[in-house]
Design brief:
Number of helices: 2
Structural class: alpha+beta
Number of domains: 1
Strand order of the largest sheet: 1-2-3-6-7-8-9-10
CATH class: Mainly Beta
Shape: elongated
Strand content: over 45%
Distance between the termini: 89 Å
Order of helices and strands: HHEEEEEEEEEE
Largest sheet: 8 strands, antiparallel, barrel
Length: 170
């Protein structure tokens, strides 16, 4: 009888161990799941931004899909200063990018950095526009804010994209 109880006990123990399911998620995964449930639906959709400085004109139209794909269009013009006749003048605008973009995206949390980031890899015809983790600030019904690698050179950390579809003004 002791042998039967022991075998029955072992069978139940093995069954319980075998049915333990997936490993529990860690803190980063839990926080990532929370932020995705809060922001993913807000990020999905069409967004655009346009910025101009004396040296750059940039327009981006991005469409973030629920399946993690991103497509869009970008136009980037650039110019420099040159000395002509002893006077510093701006050169003509040069087109750096004018074409379609495509890539992938997802939101995640990284405990070690204590930050929410938008991981984006977007390539155009001439450049890889984004490739990496960019600090994410907010997504609302009207605005999407994340740190743009392009505008970081102008000490502007976050770029605000407006909801909708537009065309460049230049």
């Amino acid at each position: 009888m002791k042998q039967i109880v022991f075998l029955l006990f072992m069978a139940v123990a093995v069954t319980l161990v075998g049915c333990g399911g997936d490993d529990p998620i860690n803190g980063d995964e839990l926080k990532t799941n929370e932020l995705r449930s809060k922001y993913n639906e807000k990020v999905v959709g069409s967004w655009f931004q346009e910025k101009q400085t004396d040296a750059n004109k940039v327009f981006e139209q991005l469409h973030f899909s629920a399946d993690g794909k991103v497509t869009g269009y970008a136009k980037w013009l650039h110019r420099t200063k040159a000395v002509v006749g002893g006077e510093e003048v701006w050169t003509d605008w040069k087109t750096e990018e004018d074409g379609d973009l495509s890539g992938e995206w997802y939101l995640a949390w990284e405990k070690g950095q204590s930050w929410i980031y938008l991981h984006v890899t977007i390539s155009g015809s001439n450049y890889t526009w984004y490739s990496g983790k960019y600090p994410f600030h907010e997504a609302t019904a009207e605005d999407l804010d994340f740190e743009s690698p392009f505008w970081r050179i102008n000490n502007n950390t976050y770029t605000t994209y407006e909801k909708g579809i537009s065309s460049p003004s230049f």
